[in-house]
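Blinded run. Sample ID left blank on purpose so nobody reads anything into the name before looking at the predicted structure. Input follows.
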Amino acid sequence: MAEENKKQQESDVAALPPPARKKSPLALAGIGALIVSVGTASGFFFLRGSNEPEVQESALTSVEQPAAALMEGADDSVELEEGEEALGAIFPFDAFLVNLSGGQYIRLQVQAEFEGPEVPKKMYARMVPIRDAIITLLTQQTAAELQDIKGKEKLKKSIRDLINERLRREDVRRIYFTQFVIQ
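Blinded prediction complete.
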């Protein structure tokens, strides 16, 4: 009889479902974080789509786009008044912050207007020597020379001639200062 009771208890125990495990909140948080990160990563890759080839375009194209947006001369829809000439392509330089001769410094933003409706490709290829020459030119100036209109006009002419010399053509029509601070 003891054996029968023992067999009966074993069969009752086998019929019972296994005891439920308690899931710790930390394990649930880890599983949730895993699901979110996998979903985010897969969404990034699937939604990114065909943008990848655009990222691998040449640096020249990305530099040309801002300059193309500033080309007012290329817009034929603008009506010119009598005697007024269309603006050419405008190329904005990064700001110059240079020590002047005599201890002061200048912060200068320069924009070059070209003869045609497009910035010449040579401009991009020769950007480093052109910036270097402009910096050298600025370091030779004094604050007193640049204070009056004549000094500013002389500097514009010097920068225009310098760029045209580096481009080996007379492409630059005018130079504009969009920022000019001496301290």
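Unblinding after everyone has recorded impressions. The beta strands are 90-92, 96-99, 105-114, 172-182.
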